[in-house]
Amino acid sequence: MPSRFASLMMHSMVFRLVFGFVLPLFLQSSSVLSNPLQLGLQSTSSGLPNPSGLKVGFYQYTCPNAEAIVRDEMTKIISQVPSLAGPLLRLHFHDCFVNGCDGSILLNSVMGLPSEKEAIPNLSLRGFGTIDRVKAKLEQACPGVVSCADILALVARDVVVLTKGPHWDVPTGRRDGRISVKQDALDNLPPPFFDAGRNLYQFFIPKGLDAKDQVVLLGGHTLGTSHCSQFADRLYNFSGKGMADPTLDKRYLPRLKNKCAIPGDTTTLVEMDPGSFRTFDASYYRHVARGRSLFTSDQTLMNGPAAAAYVRRQAAVADAGAYPAEFFADFAASMVKMGNVQVLTGAQGEVRRHCAFVN
């Protein structure tokens, strides 16, 4: 998506309701908010519970081969287009953060009412055709049974596994939402140019996700690429001062500037985890620890002692070439937790026949 310097109008759209929502938090004690990540990284038990009706093996009797169908199709797709792994993982994030994991990110705009797809943060999303392809296979096997929201969750798990990441059991039984609103995406997706503490309070905590979930889920940036426009302000005009972000590694900065020579470039792609952007591992944390992450939202994890300790611990594992057991277990747990956010179950919503349209 274009970053804030690209257009003052776009900037105001992202911030308009966010500021109104978070104001009471900023009025709290400054000793707490000056470093929100000092909250620590022990996962809380106060997050969203596993909703009734959402369970592992939900389709055991109604579509017993559902997960196998998804896995087989994804194996074919990722073997042919490995660069889709990151975007498909991102689709699940962007779905769950906007009014819950209900497949609303997949809906097309209708009758002049722009959907979430049209929001600035979602303009660079890819993989919609993949979801349609998987859905078509499932409809052939079990018409009207497997929801698009569940497909997103299963696909996210499978692309992680197919890129050498962890496996986890995905609770299923989500129903599809019928509403998708552009403004909701603007109001609920954490911007890459906000600092980690601000994103934690404004976007993660309201969804039942805590500080540990944040640092763990951001590790998903080990997969994929980003457009220059999402972080160019850190290279050329950080905080509106016409200079680079001082936390960026001085040796890495010239390489990024060479790659992103034009601040408003919305076409050039940069690897988020250089050298390993198609493999799910802990190496992304090495870049964060060394001041080489692309986004303010990631780099400022180093501002909090607990988050910084987690980053350094995973970076050390990656440097040693060891198996990232802690990160893999944590990522699996946080993905299940995120996948439970505001889900529709039972008679709520519907099961779409085509993911881009309501029935």
Automatic annotation (TrEMBL):
Primary site of residence: secreted
Cofactor note: Binds 2 calcium ions per subunit.
Protein residues bound to Ca(2+) 1: 95, 98, 100, 102, 104, 116
Site (Transition state stabilizer): residue numbering on this chain: 90
Signal peptide residue numbers: 1-20
Biological-process GO terms, alphabetical: hydrogen peroxide catabolic process; response to oxidative stress
Catalytic machinery residues: 94
Residues involved in substrate binding: 190
Reported cofactor(s): Ca(2+); heme b
Task of the protein: Removal of H(2)O(2), oxidation of toxic reductants, biosynthesis and degradation of lignin, suberization, auxin catabolism, response to environmental stresses such as wounding, pathogen attack and oxidative stress. These functions might be dependent on each isozyme/isoform in each plant tissue.
Similarity remark: Belongs to the peroxidase family. Classical plant (class III) peroxidase subfamily.
Record PANTHER family: PEROXIDASE 25-RELATED (PTHR31235)
Protein name: Peroxidase
Organism listed in the record: Urochloa decumbens
